[in-house]
Each structure stands twice: as C-alpha cells, then as structure tokens.
Amino acid sequence: MPSTMPAYRTRAERFDDLVLDAVERIERTWARQLQGTEFAVEDVPPSNPAPWEHGGVPLGRYFPPDAGLPARVVIYRRPVESRATDPLDMADLVRDVVVEQVAHLLGRSPEDVDPRYGDAG
To answer: Which of 47, 106, 109, 98 is CA-nearest to residue 74?
Structure first.
C-alpha cells in the first residue's frame, strides 16, 4: 500500500500494534497488578546488559518501580523481528516476550500470566 494512503502502516507501527494487543490481553486479567506500569518499544537494547542477562541479545526487559518511577516493560523491536520467521510467528513471539517480562515483573511464571504462553497461533 502506498505511504500516501490512510491505511498505510510502517513496520514499526505494525510492531507497536502487536505489543499493544499483547498488553491489552494481559491487562484483562492483571490490570490491578499492572496499574501504572508503562509499556514501551525501543528499536534495540542498550549495549550494557542488565546483571541478570547472560548471552545473546535481549528481546525485552522489565524495570521494577524505583525512586518514584513506575514499573516499565520494554520490548526491543529489531531483535524480535530478526528472530521471527513470518508475520504469524512475529505476533506469537511478541506475545511471549511481553508475557515473559510481565511474569518477571510480577514474580510469577509466564504460564500463570498467560496460559497460551509458548503456544504457536
């Protein structure tokens, strides 16, 4: 679709939509626990890994609330895109990364946060 058309969406905008869909799904169950949590998309992770990250490029990170700042979940677009094989795989991967980060934030297993975690489709 030409970029001049109203329905045109960039790759980044489509990725943002996938993240929003995943967050909305999780918030149906966990809205109270996630109240005030910010969700964001960044292109790539910073070059300095978090102390708990070992090997590889992270697909996302969570930041607990700290010094008056709200909790934050960040999904890294380019590493996720590079691992996805097609649009359906991308949607599944985005959902799983969001679920994993929320699970870490809440101190729960990903399967507790979303029973569909790890299921394709």
So the answer is: 98
- Rounded to whole angstroms, how far apart are CA atoms 10 and 41? 14
d(CA 60, CA 101): 7
Q: Helix axis angle, 11-34 relative to 87-106, nearest 10°?
A: 30
- Residue 12 sits at φ, ψ, to 5 deg, of -65, -40
Q: Where are the beta strands (DSSP E) in the chain?
A: 38-42, 60-63, 72-76
Cβ neighbours for 53, distance < 8 A, ≥ 6 positions apart: 61
- CA-CA distances (angstroms) from residue 27 to 12, 24, 34, 35, 70? 22, 5, 7, 9, 16
Angular region, 49: left φ>0, alpha ψ -120 to 50, beta rest: beta
Residues 59-112 have pLDDT tens digits of: 999 999 998 899 999 999 999 999 999 999 999 999 999 999 999 999 999 999
Structure tokens at 91: 């949607």
Q: How far apart are CA 80 and CA 57, in angstroms?
A: 10
